[in-house]
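Changelog excerpt

This revision adds worked examples to the README so contributors can see how folded entries look when concatenated. The first example is reproduced verbatim below.
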Amino acid sequence: MKEARVYPEGEGVPYYMLRELAFLSSANHAHICNLQRVHLHDSSLHVFFEYVDKTLHDLINPTKQVNAGQPLPHGQVKRFMWQLLSGVAYCHSRGVLHRNLKPKHILVKEDKSGCHLMISDFALVRLTAVPLKTFTAEVVTLWYRAPEVLLGGQYVTGVDVWSAACVFAEMLQGAPIFIGISEVDQLFQIFSKLGSPTDSSWPGLAQRPNFSFQFPNWPARRFDAIFPDIPADAADLLSKMFVYDPSRRISARDALDHPYFNDLPIEMREPALAPLAPRKLSPELDFGYFLQGIEDKFYPLPDFLGTKQPELDATHRGMLVDWLVEVVDVYQMSLRSAFIAVGHVDRVLATAYTPFERSQFQLLGATCLHVASKCEDVSYIGVEDLASCGDNIYTHKDVLKMEENILNLLQFQLIIPTALDFLNMMLVELSKTGGSARGPTRRQDVVESEAALKTTQSRWAHYLAELALQEYYFAQMRPSEVAAAVLFYARFLVGRRSHNLWPAGAEQYCSYSRKDLRESVKKLHHAHSSAASSTLRAIRKRYLGPERGSVAQVSAPDDLSAIDWGLMAS
């Protein structure tokens, strides 16, 4: 059991626990720790897990004496690495970075069929999306920290693969492989054993913030010399996991296909692979496959305004969305925080046991934004700032009480798909090959994915997605369908016609034909046409300036007669 105090004068449930519980409440994998119950009441949070009394560290070093660890048998190491990598691949396919893998955070459960690993302690977990963002470097216990984190700058899923490689080496030799006493010493420990990286082995190395040309230059070493007593295929897998360049480092999913694991029985492999995407197209599409699974669970929503919520209507909802977008803009928060917050608002209104009074509506929106920001933003918006944005019509205490009610109602299931997620996934996939949806299997880095979202088509798409967020018509729909309609209409606005209007290969991430999208595109066209005369100005104002292509200054077309709705997707 974990216990946390939610201090009345604080910011509610701590952001790190919120992120951990958001992931674990939706996780279902044999090698991820099993969350059994969450109890939040009266400023106290209790989290219950399956009881497991042993960690991998205990297995490697049962006496807990310094330098007393023992290598594990090769067969056991192989089974454990399969289980560990399948758990890491499961996390990554859901846009989750663990960021603190080490033997003490890996539970070992024993039963009649043997020992099973379970990844635990997700306190430093980060929920990612498309595009990727730059995260804090204050992660991962020093001995298991990847060189891209030590050298500063951007990092993605490879940080967990490096940590898993350190765990792999520790199981093989009975002791940690890199035992630095500072960040610089940790780098030197790595370089002295593996050889110093170069610009050819790691492009962009010299641009890392903490890189120095004064670093010693150690020669590269063969892995069979570093680990002379391990099987050749184990050394080969380690060499691929210990690649310096994160873009060339093997992914956890690809590592599961390494010949090292070929002799594992199918009954061990299948349960771990079943929750993953059935086919590997790209990491972005794996993430989309996960989002579709969540979407099937939560959407479409029932009609909730005027029925379950008699005091609220579409106008009230539109005003709330306009205000939330303005707050996100003023505080320079992630746009995704606004989409997630609106998603939480809609789910709460659709599932609440009692109707909300109109006087509570802005408080609900503000609290949902606070929850979304704690999960999404590096620097989340505080309760006092939210109270100030609401002209102090609600108090600090009101927000924390509403947060408790929301989290209990939603059962901490806070990972939800948004139209922005599906839209960005589509735009990034299309950018990989200049318009074809079939791209490489490597996940794009921060710079590449951001560049894909700065085209004229992308700016139109984001403007339309925000306008759709404001419309109640789209609130009840599946977010993937909203995203498809937005992309379709955006391509029409940038001049795509006939067979080029709907991209070839789009069926990989979108099951909708242009005929399916007809009514939604017409609704988007109406929202676009009405934006200039609307009293809700926050969204349009964001897209008037040149930094977002000034697309809001362009009038909507008079009609959509140029679209042939009868054609199916290519």
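The second example, added in the same revision:
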Amino acid sequence: MAGYLGAIPVPQATQHRESFTATSGQTTFNTAGYTVGFLDVYLNGSHLSPADFTATNGSDVVLASGASTGDVCDIISYTAFEIADQTFTGTTTMDVAAITGVLTTTAATVFNGGFTANDGSTISTADNTTQLTLISTDADANKGPALDLYRNSGSPAAGDDTGRINFQGENDADEAVTYTQIFTEIVAVGDGVESGRYKVGAMLAGDFASRMDMTASETVFNDDSKDLNFRVESNNHTDALFVDAGDDKTYFGKSSSALSAAGIEAHPTGRFMATLDGGLVAQFNRLSNDGDILEFYKDGTAVGSIESRSGNSLSINTGNSGVLSLSGGATNHIQVINSLASGTPRLQPSADNTVDLGASGNRFDDIFATNGTIQTSDRNEKQDIASLTSAEMLVAKRISALFKTFRWKDKVAAKGNDARTHTGIIAQDVQAAFTAESLDAGDYSLFISSTWWEHDVDVPAVEADEDNEIEAQDAYTRTDTYVTEDEAPEGATSKTRMGIRYPELLSFVAAYNEQRFASIETRLTALEG
């Protein structure tokens, strides 16, 4: 019904009818104007299908077949209609509609030509169905569906918001709360240097806090310094990367500060710890040429380095006048000194007369040296200086007859008949010589008797693990040694080994010989006189 929609007159919606009498073969009829897609064409009262005519330029209607002389062509065009505060209770299809008031629909509404809203709009449902769905049926590879948030400002400036999405809900006080928010803004508007900011925030314990902030210069997580951990999970590790906001530490492969737990731990103070269960903990590789692999500094000044040298050698350097210390405690160290004054490096203890070289259960084998050892013999540091007593003379006499040749058992086991013969004395024989004269060999430093404790530990085999760079290893037994019984574990076995300080032993025998020779000479002199 012309000018009507349903049963209610709608004067805002109009239609325009034009009637033309055709000439022979006429196909084009020039109208006063129409909206493309919104017109009906009739020929002699028959409604033509859209396939029977073309109407695309807004003024001409072109028939597919020429009309006959006297045919009547009626062309009806429609304009958009406006609706003010209307309610639709059924399925409504609108091609073009301008809604100036409130539109309420209780069933599906289809806009075939799209719509433009000039004010805020609300979509409400009473259930959990999706309130808004954007669908693109385009089959090409371009974007779609697409949603644009466009701030069309005539004077754009840095700091302008370009959009925000609020995720809101109620709290238990019946208050609307923005629990999460996505926020964007302009950082720079200059042509060619345009920059933007993207920020995600969330409510935390009653306060709104930044969770991620992507600016023009950085991406920041937890910019408000909340006690919020940051975790990245990989395929095999729950905590491939873990930042503990509470203790301000960063972890790789672990989530707590424990040296016994496998993983890497980095402290903001500069401390770094790495633990691997049963495998290689760290590798450092310098390519191409020799040189420093690690450098060490104190207050910005280099104090040493570890370098590769001659292709397959490792060198620890301390600089031209540095000291390399091998520490076994708080005060006693072994030092490697590089002295510019003497031009000769040396190995020395950090404190005088406090450090031993080797132990009864951990001995060196051979020592190669150009010169012999230098032992302190300063009168100012000695007391109780005396000649041998008669009992000591008798002991020395016994000892002078105890020198033997021998071969070491472990050398014979290793070399067989190629093991060489040594000359020396048996410590037990020396001890017996003192005992025979009612003296205690332990009171004399030429005699040594040391006891230590050993404990065998069965080390299980290790299976290869390429992912963690663990090499296969057969099971074996490790022997641990302990200096005192108190530090040794239960079940440890005590071991005792006796030894001789040969310089002192030979001095003891030399003193005996000198006193004996002097006595002989005295008697000879008396006899000759």
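Reviewer comment on example two: The CA atoms of residues 241 and 252 lie 5 Å apart. The two ends are 172 Å apart (CA to CA).
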